[in-house]
Design goal:
Layout (H helix, E strand, L loop, with lengths): L1 H7 L8 H12 L6 H14 L5 H10 L7 H10 L1
Length: about 80
């Protein structure tokens, strides 16, 4: 499936947050897109996504079992450097 999506997006497809959020949007709306429709929607979503979402960084740190107690302060510090 990943190989097909890569083929349909000229190698651009990545199985990451954008892919999962997009799929969740389809499913939440009761839509089962074809692979071609999903690939086209993924390309549009990827183009529209111009900067990282802070929520994704938090979830990534949490998934990596990093201490998230002072997470907001840490990210503010990283952003200012």
């Amino acid at each position: 499936m990943i190989a097909l999506l890569k083929q349909l997006t000229s190698g651009a497809f990545k199985d990451g947050a954008i892919a999962r959020i997009l799929l969740n949007e389809f499913w939440s709306n009761g839509v089962a897109p074809t692979y071609r429709e999903y690939a086209a929607a993924w390309l549009r979503a990827k183009e529209a996504h111009t900067r990282p979402n802070p929520e994704w960084a938090f979830l990534s740190d949490k998934a990596d079992l990093k201490d998230t107690k002072d997470w907001k302060q840490l990210r503010t510090k990283k952003r200012s450097t």
